[in-house]
Amino acid sequence: MTILYLHGLMSSNQSDKIDWLKENHDVINPLLKYSAHSKSIFTDLKVLCEQNAVALIIGSSMGGFLGFHLSNTLNIPSLLFNPALVTKSEFKPKVTAVNNTSVLHTIIFGRYDDVVIPAETLQFLKDNTTNFAHSFEQTGHRTPYAIFKKHVTLLELSNNLL
Asked: How far is CA 160 from CA 5, 32, 33, 111, 152, in A?
């Protein structure tokens, strides 16, 4: 399975999480330069998904924002950690917003996240009649490796992707 991994605004495209994903999957993990490419990043990622038959989009924070909109546009399931769907930022990329109620977004919130406020994101998802499942972890904004691994594995098992 090919996975597109989208890191957050202050993160990198290299990590233990990505190394672990690459043990069992083809992973595309571009370095996202949010400030320099905010106008073209969405279109560039859309083309990348189409050219590589991406089957799952995983995103964190600002990468979760991009992943949500790519997922809706391309009808690809997503696994999003603290997606910045409502959070304001001067670096927020321009996206094409598509209402898609058939694609499933699995969303993991850090209960103590003070960067992306879970209640605001949940309200956004409900207001936009989004097809989503969510859970909370006892974390803040950053997602620890063990929590990441747990939710990827649960998603794989629930979809018979192993």
From this structure: 20, 30, 34, 28, 12
CB within 8 Å of 42: residues ≥ 6 apart: 66, 69, 70, 93, 94, 95, 96
- Between the two ends of the chain, the Cα-to-Cα distance in Å is 9
For the chain, which domains are there? 2-158 (3.40.50.1820)
Distance in angstroms (rounded) separating the CA atoms of residues 85 and 124: 8
- Beta partners for residue 80, in sequence order: 59, 107
**For the sheet containing 26-28, what is the strand order?**
26-28, 2-6, 56-60, 78-81, 105-110, 132-137
The pLDDT-based confidence of 162 (bands split at 50, 70, 90) is very low
Q: 3-state DSSP call for residue 123? A: helix
Q: Are 84 and 114 in contact (CB under 8 A)?
A: no
| Assessment of whether the complete model's pTM goes beyond 0.90 | yes
Task: Kindly report, residue by residue over 37-58, the tens digit of the pLDDT.
Answer: 677 899 999 999 999 999 999 9
